[in-house]
């Protein structure tokens, strides 16, 4: 028995173009006695229309609605039908307005014929909706793993834990904080990093901190991910395995050392921003150490950046140079600071203001041509540089006590291994890739999220924002009960794919083809079972149908959009 | 819009409709939106096409496309999101990989590949969809009467138009000369190694061929002394036999197979398909001689270390079936001999499915002999495309002498040429788009398609390959 058809006449617009009476006649012609009745309703996208039609459906088990395109008013109409009391049953939406009447206005007979076959296709697909056969969905492990204890990771842990999800935070260093302990003050407001760290370190009780532990194994398991942590203790190396439902990668980035550039490490007086950072921190704590600070300093930007080795601008070295310059001026007010740069990159209002403050305080900026880098003067001790001015082309010598190289951040060395274990893509520079531009903090692997400098160098504030967002994403991922209902009217309720074991040869094609990492082949078959088990992680499945398309046996099945249903639509379309 | 002289009644869409039967599989995230936008803009289109919405272009199985051709579709378009902009990560890339292989399969048997249009990214805008739709309808309308439709539909209305080939010519069941070919004992070092495996318990059984009073048969050896009776040939689908043997054995069984190079690669593919979980499988191989390699059109008989393309060993007979301009007729004459004996499937070491689509009436309707060639032989070829090791067991088993290796070889050649993929060597299949650490498998990602926002709906036809659109 076919489902009844609701024909939304779109206040008469659609009924004028496709006569529902003629449509019913044609349907009876094609399907004979089994042809379903077409109930004409004036407008489904208004409450009055929705209530009116419920009586017409009777006790049918499924429903076909013909009207405008689903993206036009369909979603609204379905919502109103459900609000008016339409039971939860398979529903098919057939687009007769945009998909037929509007584009075939000059050939009404052909349009009517096409409308009839579109209705038959919809009915055929609806009849082959398969009931769910598999066992209830596997529960996801309600725990988030946060990798990295920097500002991003701490903020992520806080946000996820605040939503009621237990968190395991893993930091490979003995103490949490990431790069924060290496910096004394943070831009733009030169606040103390220890204050921020104290604030971030106040973690809720459901966060378990694992400092000094390294990830040695990480792979998808039935309930999410299985992670093996290794740590070195006085007793030797010990490992521990935990299961989590979601992973947040907040592994951060590491500063590039200017080794091999401008006599760094060989010439006394040539240092990096991180070393200047340490000197400044020392001088702040101990006024006697102010004497070690340079009276005349030269900062060189873009060292080991925007070249062949690191062909990118990390957009964080200019702000740190400005910050260190301002701090130096606070401690040594008469200091002369010249920044040699290709161009100063300070995106955003806050960082731009930092630049203006620096110019107002008397820091000088000289632009250089990247083709003619400065030449270091002096033998074992740095005395100055010879530069070629980018504008005038004139050669000039600048004397100074200290030459500070600003270097970018680069991906942490263990990122490659992590990305490989999880299947997360990395970009040309080696940073982790999210699903830019729409979902930058999510990855193709459901349940894996990114934040902070692991995806691109960022400030502590930005890392915390991203971390909080990733933490909430992970929490909502693990709390998800209802799936996206937007496709409900076109191909039925979104239900995850199923693998029917009696048909399955366990060939693993579904696992290889799944774009969301939702199909899992168990490593070892259970005792007494003929084959190892293949299963779908319902939380990761987004019902795209790739598994069913590649499954050679038909074991992988989308109950709402089966291959058999597609075949039936094809058959009706070509009838 | 409708031209009076074009109004030919066609059975594909019933009596009142004119024009070719065209199906669109449209991904609902891009192409469907484009189609709806075209409707909202009231762009007049030919009513001969039907759209089947799908969640992702990657959800369109190759079998369904074949099935639609067999049902009477004259043109099929699969439309998805821009490559690199798929809602389902790599779904459209996978769709592209799988369906362009189908493209190659259609071309190899002489069906005009233009009948299958793959387009990613041109359909998002209403005008682009309309232009694409019109071009495709016009293209299909123009090629309406080309003779490949018989092979498409399996109607066999024109019996054996092609008389250049007699049946049986393609039968490769070589009459082996026992003296020179095959029944040599196994190489001594292989026997020694197999004996060592048995003696040390690394393998409980060794499967090899053995000369008996009723010919050469596979034999399970469990003691090292008996191994002297093992022989090399003739060619035998040992990997399949081994698989059947191991299915009957309990978990924890350790066994070894003494076989040809192709059997070893088939074994690797079976392992890849998780067929030996919980069991330990070893393989001892010997290379085939040049004559055997020639007979099998085998590029990798195990004689050389470097892996070669399947094209390197293409025999002239195979080449003829794939390059003849009238190959649709050649294949029609071959396919008419199919008696649906399932021999090709049963001999295939890769066909390990508990249920087979060739027994599913959705794809191969029962009671029809010969079966429609597209669903039968192309469906099977596409199922095993990235796993097929080119051993030729299917062709050897075919009592009708259908040159099945030609289809398999054409697909393997394409996978090797486009993606450098050879089955049996533990490579990731390019037909899926799994994410690897280096990016999606199957070559570097193509650049973003060039958007020109084409509004001129009468612009020249869109090409059928997404590469050319960029």
Report on the structure:
The complex is a heterodimer of chains A (575) and B (470). With 575 residues, chain A is an alpha/beta fold. Chain A is 31% helix and 21% strand. In chain A, the strands form nine sheets. Chain A has a five-stranded parallel beta sheet, with helices on one face. In chain A, a hairpin with a 2-residue loop joins strand 10 (214-221) and strand 11. By secondary structure, chain B is of the alpha/beta class. Chain B is built from 16 helices and eleven strands. In chain B, strand 10 and strand 11 form a beta hairpin. Residues 1-17, 156-181 and 435-470 of chain B have low confidence and may be disordered.
Gist?
The complex is a heterodimer of chains A (575) and B (470). Chain A is of the alpha/beta class and 575 residues long.
Itemize the secondary structure elements and their pairings.
The complex is a heterodimer of chains A (575) and B (470).
Chain A: E1 5-8, H1 13-17, H2 20-31, E2 38-41, H3 47-57, E3 63-67, H4 70-83, E4 91-95, H5 97-101, H6 108-127, E5 144-147, H7 151-162, E6 167-171, E7 185-186, E8 191-192, H8 193-201, E9 207-211, E10 214-221, E11 224-233, E12 236-244, E13 246-249, E14 253-255, E15 270-272, H9 273-285, E16 296-300, H10 317-331, E17 336-341, H11 349-360, E18 364-367, E19 375-377, E20 384-388, E21 395-399, E22 402-405, E23 409-411, H12 415-422, E24 448-450, H13 460-479, H14 488-491, E25 498-499, H15 509-513, E26 519-521, E27 534-536, H16 546-550, E28 556-557, H17 563-573
Parallel strand pairs in A: 1-2, 1-3, 3-4, 5-6, 5-13, 6-9, 13-24, 15-22, 16-17, 16-22, 17-18
Antiparallel strand pairs in A: 7-8, 10-11, 11-12, 14-23, 19-20, 20-21, 25-28, 26-27
Helix pairs in contact in A: 2-6, 6-17, 7-13, 9-10, 10-11
Chain B: E1 22-27, H1 31-40, E2 49-54, H2 62-71, E3 75-80, H3 91-108, E4 116-120, H4 126-142, H5 149-153, H6 188-200, E5 205-212, E6 215-221, E7 230-231, H7 238-248, E8 254-260, H8 261-272, E9 280-286, H9 290-295, H10 316-323, H11 327-335, H12 343-347, H13 373-383, H14 393-397, H15 404-419, E10 435-436, E11 439-440, H16 466-469
Parallel strand pairs in B: 1-2, 1-3, 3-4, 5-8, 8-9
Antiparallel strand pairs in B: 5-6, 5-7, 10-11
Helix pairs in contact in B: 1-4, 2-13, 3-15, 7-8, 10-15, 13-15
């Amino acid at each position: 028995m076919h489902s009844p058809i609701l024909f939304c006449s779109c206040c008469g617009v659609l009924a004028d173009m496709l006569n529902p009476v003629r449509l019913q006649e044609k349907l009876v012609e094609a399907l004979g006695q089994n042809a379903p009745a077409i109930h004409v309703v004036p407008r489904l996208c208004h409450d009055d229309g929705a209530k009116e039609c419920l009586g017409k459906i009777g006790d049918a088990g499924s429903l076909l609605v013909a009207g405008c395109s689903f993206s036009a008013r369909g979603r609204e109409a379905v919502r109103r039908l459900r609000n008016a009391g339409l039971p939860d049953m398979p529903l098919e939406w057939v687009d007769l307005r945009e998909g037929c009447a509007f584009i075939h206005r000059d050939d009404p007979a052909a349009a009517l014929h096409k409308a009839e076959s579109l209705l038959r296709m919809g009915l055929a697909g609806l009849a082959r909706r398969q009931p769910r056969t598999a066992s209830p969905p596997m529960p996801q492990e309600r725990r988030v793993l946060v990798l990295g204890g920097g500002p991003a990771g701490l903020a992520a842990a806080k946000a996820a834990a605040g939503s009621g999800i237990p968190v395991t935070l893993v930091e490979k260093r003995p103490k949490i904080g990431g790069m924060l302990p290496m910096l004394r003050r943070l831009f733009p407001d030169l606040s103390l990093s220890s204050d921020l760290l104290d604030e971030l370190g106040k973690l809720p009780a459901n966060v378990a901190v694992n400092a000094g532990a390294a990830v040695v194994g990480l792979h998808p398991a039935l309930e999410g991910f299985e992670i093996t942590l290794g740590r070195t203790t006085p007793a030797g190396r010990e490992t521990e395995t935990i299961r989590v439902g979601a992973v947040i990668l907040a592994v951060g980035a590491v500063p590039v050392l200017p080794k091999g550039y401008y006599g760094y490490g060989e010439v006394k007086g040539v240092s990096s921003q991180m070393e200047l950072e340490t000197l400044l921190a020392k001088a702040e704590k101990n006024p006697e150490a102010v004497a070690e600070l340079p009276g005349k300093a030269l900062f060189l930007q873009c060292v080991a950046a925007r070249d062949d080795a690191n062909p990118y601008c990390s957009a964080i070295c200019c702000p740190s140079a400005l910050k260190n310059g301002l701090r130096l001026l606070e401690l040594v007010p008469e200091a002369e600071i010249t920044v040699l740069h290709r161009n100063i990159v300070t995106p955003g209002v806050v960082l731009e203001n930092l630049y203006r403050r620096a110019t107002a305080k008397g820091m000088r900026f000289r632009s250089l041509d990247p083709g003619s880098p400065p030449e270091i003067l002096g033998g074992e001790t740095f005395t100055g540089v010879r530069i070629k001015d980018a504008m005038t082309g004139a050669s000039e010598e600048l004397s100074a006590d200290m030459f500070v190289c600003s270097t970018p951040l680069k991906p942490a060395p263990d990122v490659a291994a992590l990305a490989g274990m999880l299947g997360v893509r990395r970009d040309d520079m080696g940073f982790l890739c999210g699903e830019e531009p729409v979902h930058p903090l999510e990855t193709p692997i459901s349940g894996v999220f990114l934040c902070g400098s692991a995806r691109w160098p960022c400030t502590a504030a930005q890392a915390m924002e991203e971390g909080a967002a990733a933490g909430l994403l992970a929490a909502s991922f693990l709390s998800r009960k209802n799936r996206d209902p937007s496709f409900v009217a076109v191909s039925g309720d979104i239900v995850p794919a199923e693998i029917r074991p009696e048909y399955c040869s366990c060939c693993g094609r579904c696992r290889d083809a799944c774009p969301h990492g939702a199909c899992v082949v168990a490593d070892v078959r259970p005792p007494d079972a003929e084959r190892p088990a293949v299963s779908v992680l319902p939380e990761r499945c987004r019902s795209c149908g790739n598994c069913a398309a590649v499954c050679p046996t038909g074991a992988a099945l989308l109950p709402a959009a089966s291959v058999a249903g597609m075949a039936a639509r094809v058959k009706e379309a070509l009838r | 819009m409708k031209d009076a002289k074009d109004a030919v009644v066609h059975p594909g869409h019933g009596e009142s409709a004119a024009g070719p039967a065209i199906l669109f599989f449209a991904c609902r995230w891009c192409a469907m939106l484009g189609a709806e936008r075209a409707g909202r803009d009231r762009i007049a289109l030919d009513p001969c096409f039907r759209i089947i919405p799908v969640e992702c272009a990657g959800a369109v199985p190759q079998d369904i496309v074949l099935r639609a051709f067999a049902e009477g579709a004259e043109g099929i378009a699969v439309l998805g999101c821009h490559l690199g902009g798929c809602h389902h990560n790599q779904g459209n890339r996978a769709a592209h990989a799988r369906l362009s292989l189908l493209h190659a399969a259609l071309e190899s048997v002489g069906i005009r590949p233009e009948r299958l249009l793959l387009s990613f990214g041109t359909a998002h805008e209403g005008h682009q969809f309309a232009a694409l739709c019109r071009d495709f309808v016009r293209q299909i309308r123009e090629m309406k009467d080309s003779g490949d439709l018989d092979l498409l539909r399996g109607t066999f209305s024109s019996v054996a138009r092609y008389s250049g080939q007699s049946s049986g010519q393609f039968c490769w069941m070589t009459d082996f000369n026992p003296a020179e070919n095959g029944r040599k004992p196994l190489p001594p070092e292989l026997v020694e190694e197999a004996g060592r495996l048995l003696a040390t318990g690394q393998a409980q059984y060794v499967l090899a061929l053995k000369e008996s009073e009723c010919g050469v048969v596979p034999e399970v050896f469990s003691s090292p002394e008996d191994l002297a009776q093992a022989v090399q040939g003739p060619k035998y689908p040992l990997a399949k036999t081994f698989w059947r043997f191991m299915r009957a054995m309990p978990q924890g069984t350790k066994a070894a197979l003494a076989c040809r190079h192709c059997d070893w690669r088939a074994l690797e593919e079976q392992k890849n398909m998780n067929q030996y979980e919980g069991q330990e499988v070893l393989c001892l191989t010997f290379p085939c001689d040049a004559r055997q390699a020639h007979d099998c059109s085998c590029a990798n008989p195990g004689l050389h270390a470097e892996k070669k393309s399947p094209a390197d060993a293409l025999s002239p007979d195979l080449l003829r079936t794939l390059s003849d301009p009238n190959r649709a007729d050649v294949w029609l004459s071959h396919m008419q001999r199919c008696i649906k004996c399932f021999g090709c499937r049963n001999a295939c070491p890769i066909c390990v499915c508990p249920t087979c689509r060739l027994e599913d009436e959705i794809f191969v309707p029962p009671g029809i002999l010969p079966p429609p060639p597209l669903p039968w032989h192309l469906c099977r070829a596409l199922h095993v495309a990235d796993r097929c090791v080119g051993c030729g067991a299917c062709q050897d088993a075919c009592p009708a002498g259908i040159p099945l290796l030609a289809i398999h070889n054409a697909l393997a050649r394409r996978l090797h040429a486009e993606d450098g993929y050879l089955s049996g060597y533990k490579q990731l299949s390019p037909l899926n788009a799994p994410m690897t650490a280096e990016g999606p498998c199957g070559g570097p990602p193509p650049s973003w398609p060039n958007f020109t926002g084409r509004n001129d709906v009468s612009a020249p036809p869109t090409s059928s390959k997404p590469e050319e659109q960029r």
